[in-house]
Every structure is written in structure tokens, then in C-alpha cells.
Amino acid sequence: MAKPEPILEKRSWKPGNVLAPLPAVLVSCGGTPQWKPNIITIAWVGNVCSDPPMLSISVRPQRYSYEIIRTTQEFVVNVPSLRQARATDWCGMVSGRKVDKFAQTGLTSAPALKVQCPIILECPLNIECRIRQSIKLGSHTLFVAEVVAVQVSAALLDSKGRLRLERSGLLAFAHGEYFALGRNLGRFGFSVRKTKRKARS
Questions:
Q1: Residue 148's pLDDT band (boundaries 50, 70, 90)?
Q2: pLDDT value at residue 1
Q3: SS (H, E, C) the chain
Q4: Which residues, other chains included, contact 118 with Cβ-Cβ below 8 Å and sequence gap of 6+?
Q5: Distance from the CA of 155 to the CA of which of 8, 136, 169, 189 falls in 20 to 30 A?
Q6: What are phi and psi of 198, to 5 degrees?
Q7: What is the pLDDT of residues 25-70, one digit of tens each?
Q8: Percent of the chain with pLDDT over 90
Q9: How far apart are CA 196 and CA 192, in angstroms?
Q10: Which of 177, 145, 157 is nearest to 27 (CA)?
């Protein structure tokens, strides 16, 4: 007789931002006559639509980058690798009002394809965005933006031209801590994919 399943005990937890893990990204903005280039670290970022491709970021109005993004209506989501982990954390701890984050981190400002703000050259993936909608939610404002261009590190393209972003060593953020992503558990749809029959010898 099979043993009964153990009862999973649950505890009540206060409502809060417990969804995790999240990507930790470097959002670049500015680069206009009015605003110098700046970088803000954001973990509240996500895809919201595939056609047209759109994503969102949430920013506190108190942050220096908020006014830059609100007035220019554009930004770049730069996805860092483990090599940029220290810079990612540092850019979230200091204000662009006081320091030049590109100069202090040694990150390279490079031209975007469709927006005025720069990309971060060292990041393996750069997603150029133009804002379509802004929603004030309370502590944060949600910027919903259309993806207007993407740049990728050439070294991450395989022989068939597929993007192998997992080779770059991606960061994740969960409850105030950074993590490296673990082993690959399977491609999307692996749970229903039929296994190939072994060829007869």
C-alpha cells in the first residue's frame, strides 16, 4: 500500500512583493541635450505583450532616472551577465545626481539604434524601448513601453543564428539578494514532448 502524501503546512504571510526570482537589469536613460546619460538598477521589469513586443518597468518618482525617463519617453533595458554583478548592485546604491555611473563603473556607453539614450556595451542584451503608457500606482510608476530595437552580443549567436543568452551567465534577484541561474531543466514544452524512439540496431 502506498504511503499517504505528507500534508504541506502553510503559514500566513503579510501581503507584499514576494514574487521571485526576478531579472536584475541595468536601465540606461538620458543622453539628450537636457539629460546626461544615466543608469538605474531595476528588478521590477517584465514582458507584457508579444505583438507588438512590449515590456514594463516600475520606477519610484523619487529616483533621479524617473524624471529623465518621464520626459524623454524612452529607455534601454540592458540585461547584465555575472561579470556586471558588482556594477549592477552599485548602480542601485548611488544616485546619478551626484556621480557619472558610466565613468565610475567603467561600463561603456554605446549608441542605440532607435532611441537617443545609450546602450551598455558590456551587457549581452540591449532592449531599446519607447514608452506607450505611464500608470501611477502608488510608490512606483509603471512605464509600459514598446520594444523598438534589440542588440545582442555576437558571441551569443550559434551557428544557426539562434540567440543563446543562457551562455552569458545571467543574474536573478530575489528578496534583496542576487543569484546566478542554475542548470537547464528543459525547453518550453518538455513536459508534453514525445521522446524519440531509439533506432533499431
A1: very high
A2: 61
A3: CCCCCCCCCCCCCCCCCCCCCECCEEEEECCCCCCCCEEEEECCEEEEEECCEEEEEEECCCCHHHHHHHHHCEEEEEECEHHHHHHHHHHCCCCCCCCCHHHHHCCCEECCCCCCCCEECCCCEEEEEEEEEEEECCCCEEEEEEEEEEEECHHHECCCCCECHHHHCEEEEECCEEEECCCCCCCCCCCCCCCCCCCCC
A4: 28, 31, 37, 76, 102, 109, 110, 111, 112
A5: 189
A6: -70, 135
A7: 999 999 999 999 999 999 999 999 999 999 999 999 999 999 999 9
A8: 83
A9: 12
A10: 145
Entry pTM: 0.91
How far apart CA 17 and CA 199 sit, in angstroms, is 50
Q: What is the largest CA-CA distance in the chain?
A: 75
Residue 81 is placed in which grid cell? 551577465
